[in-house]
Amino acid sequence: MSLHLSASLGTWLAAALTLCIFSFLYKDNPLYKFAEHLFVGVSAGYYIVLNFWTVIWPNLIVPLGKAAQGLGVDPEHKGPFAAELGDYRAWLVIPGVLGVLLFARLLGRIGWVSRWPLAVIIGVYAGIKTTGFAQGDLVAQVQASLQPILGRTPWETVNAVLFTIGLIASLLFFFFSREHRGALGVASKIGAYFLMIGFGAGYGYTVMSRISLLIGRFQFLLENWLGLR
Amino acid sequence: MQWLERLDRRWIFVVMGLLVLGPLIKPLYLPLSVTEHVRAFAAAIDRVPNGSTVLMSCDYDPSAIPEMVPMTRTAMRQLLSKDCKIVITVLWNAGPGLVDSVTHETAREFPGKRYGVDWINLGYKSGNEAVMVLMGQGIANAFPRDYSGGDTRSYPIMHRVRDYSSFPLLVNISAGYPGTKEWVQQVQARFHLPMVAGVTAVSAPEFYPYLQSGQLQGLLGGMAGAAEYEKARGEKGTATRGMDAQSLGHVFVALCIILGNVVRRTRPAGGTA
Q1: In this structure, what are the phi and psi dihedrals at residue B54, rounded to the nearest 5 degrees?
Q2: pLDDT at B271
Q3: What is the ipTM of this complex?
Q4: What pTM, to 2 d.p., does this model score?
Q5: Are residues A101 and A3 in the same domain?
Q6: Domain housing A192
Q7: Residue A59's pLDDT is what?
Q8: HSE on the CB side for B194, CA within 13 Å?
Q9: Does B266 fall in a domain?
């Protein structure tokens, strides 16, 4: 195994900043603060520029510029308002104006105007989310929960029984209209154990995610920066 | 055991760092078995007829590289080795550059494959779920330009792509919102497009109900899922190389939890932490 140090300035810079961030594990220090502030500043600038060039420019300014010349996605159709699906031409002025109105809240007296575009955003997304949730989660999950207790193999049967007990007990844990005593108390306690197993699995996966990030950084330092192979 | 209560936590960081670093320098080759839902992921792609066009949505950004990039590479290799065409979309605005470099790098392993003919990166489109719904009315309507700025309709690969009905499978590699949950709600449920997903470990438990209900045909959870997928495909990528470190890290966390509980139980009555 030998070292093949990177010749890229970007890799050295990234490695140095990674080590600056790692230095926080010892204690808070100026190197960490420098890297942290640099990250926040660069991220803010990067996202503003990125959103301008990936959202505002291709979705609003370019189509409006074309529409001003009577053109759009489909060259066969001429005219600034000759819109069709996916080709909205000068009609994009409406979402453009609504977008600008969002900034009205900075103007004090007419700040209430910003509620109009917000109402459109909330209305559209409430509609999309509600139907999506109803189809994708509610109906499909209720259907999947109604499964036969007796499976084709003994293990399938055990699985189905455990699933059914867990489902009912967990639901009863969240039933607060009666005090959790007697049979309801026992069922809700069983439900709590099932929930705790679920939280434990969630915690295990979270640990895996965080260790993966550490592994990713170490792999970068060892392979990309030090070129260890 | 009470000295553990006064242990400087930086010793825990040192041990964790060494346990992760050690196996990356000198691998231990700990055993790794392929779980059922990872096998199902690979099998779902195998079932896609050779030469068909598959939609692959890579919804992540650089913060999820260790988990998402190995999945993307292996899935793309599996699809290209079946001569499938791949239409790639990104719904995270900091993702397209990363996804473009990963996909170009992977496609270079297949000398005969050409951009615009065998695969295309349509880049980023803002709007989250609204984009998914819009794609149902036409992929090119939602993405009139690809990542490099070319007219989407002018590429040969797009000549046979209309809407979701043009794809036999959706492969979603997702690190959060918008991602797998939204694709299931807006596309799988509405357009009945068969779907497999690769997700970050932290979000994986959320998606097991979709697996159980059959809404997802296969699931890769985090780096372990990516490593199992690599093993199932006979590859040894970055995820496989990271699994020894992952295993030792987990053992150490479990040990810390057990020791913490032992210290708590053996604390003298009236003692404080």
Answers
A1: -115, 140
A2: 58
A3: 0.90
A4: 0.91
A5: yes
A6: 148-229
A7: 87
A8: 14
A9: no
